[in-house]
Amino acid sequence: MHTKHTGSWSELLWGRNGLRSLALAGGVAVHAVNVYIVTTILPSIVDDIGGLEYYAWNTTLFVVASILGSALSPKFLDQFGLRRAFLLAIALFAAGTIGCALAPAMPWLLAARTVQGLGGGLLLGLSYSAVRMVFDERLWSRAMVLVSSMWGVATLAGPAIGGIFAQTGHWRLAFWAVVPIAALLAVLVRTQLAQGRQRGSKRSQAPLGSIFLLALSVLVVSVASLSAQPAWKAVGIALGLLIAVLIARIDGRARVRLFPTGSYSAHTALGSLYACICLLSIGVTTEIYIPYFLQVIHGKSPLAAGYWTALMSAGWTLGSFVSSGRSTGTANRLIVIGPVVSAASLAVLAWMMPMAGLSQQGGANGLMAPLLGVGVGVGLCWPNMLTRVFKSAPEGQENIASAAITTLQLYAMAMGAALAGMVTNAAGFTEPGGVQGARQAALALFAVFACAPGLAALMTRGARRAG
Fold first, then answer.
1. pLDDT tens-place string over residues 2-34
2. Cβ-proximal residues to 310 (8 Å cutoff; 6+ apart), any chain
3. DSSP H or E run through 252
4. Of 304, 385, 403, 435, which sits most exposed with the smallest number of CB within 10 A?
5. Architecture of domain 262-467
6. Cα–Cα dist 101/104, whole Å
7. CATH architecture for segment(s) 9-201
8. Do residues 408 and 317 lie in contact, with contact meaning Cβ atoms separated by under 8 Å?
9. Which of left, alpha, beta for 428 (phi over 0: left; psi -120 to 50: alpha)?
10. How far apart are CA 466 and CA 305, in angstroms?
């Protein structure tokens, strides 16, 4: 037993360490809670200020900006030191949040969401990076668990905050409610975090060119989604794919890589793992439309719709608990079963969600099982896939492989939102709109996106071999 080398929870959460923990966890929490607040109140926003055709852009631009912010966080850390970098990130996030609260029209809101996403991405990157700077090594493991767990807290707090304000007709107050929390976080950072840089570390470098190309590929698809012409939509998807191929070519020769060697081939263990992670994440991005479908088609309140949407995240957590720590053979089976469960659940949603009479028949509660199932399917294979990424990384590229998971997941969310906007708009989300448009969009969205985890199930060979 070597317990003296492992810090306890009480050591991490008590006294000065407790305040520091609150500061770092708070950085992730304000970003994560905001994600679920906006998902919950977005139907109310478009009902008030319009811009239904830009529905998915609220997520796309926010996540693209988060990718850039997360990638820039090491530069900020080097340039400004920990405390100042954190305060700048909070200021950006708060400015974007205030902009959202004041938005008179959708273009204003989208600009503010971009600023908010940049600040949120910086907060995410800094919160994880700061663990090694703020705490002794024996506390690192528990601190990372605490910081990561804030996403779970967000699934409870976000829909509650957003739903209550949307239900009373005051969606702007949901944004204003985040501002004092950000201010409190700034006070904690100012008083508890030292103004220091990473001791003995080299100047941080990031593959910013490749990251900007990632952002460009998403924006190309988003712009094409607004066209009424199928040909332009096809051109947008083709250009997005071409840019992705260009990224692979550039990254393969780069001195500072975005993804480790072997990531761009589906025949390698690492390529198979990353492909599955990407496709599973894309399937989950359907959640951004669920509050709208539940409110418009099934007459659910904003609060109820917000919590029903959070069932996907709850299922993800449940599936992860079930699958973690399993034997290699069981893990291999779950890596195949998980995507199949997720794909089947999305297919069931494609069938059930458009049924306008479901609520009158008391059958709307039947939607809860497939909503949960989408997340459970991802969770059943997620922990084992992440562990195998670390094992499959080429020697000396383990840190790149680890950081690439977050970049890939955010990219998949952004691209998934862009593609969702394209599918729903083409299916009639805005024209004819209303209940009929929502029904058509729900059928198309869930049917098309069921293909993503379905394809992941067919690409697990390398992932299973990694075990």
1. 444 567 777 788 888 889 888 999 998 999 899
2. 36, 155, 156, 158, 159
3. helix 230-253
4. 435
5. Up-down Bundle (1.20)
6. 9
7. Up-down Bundle (1.20)
8. no
9. left
10. 39
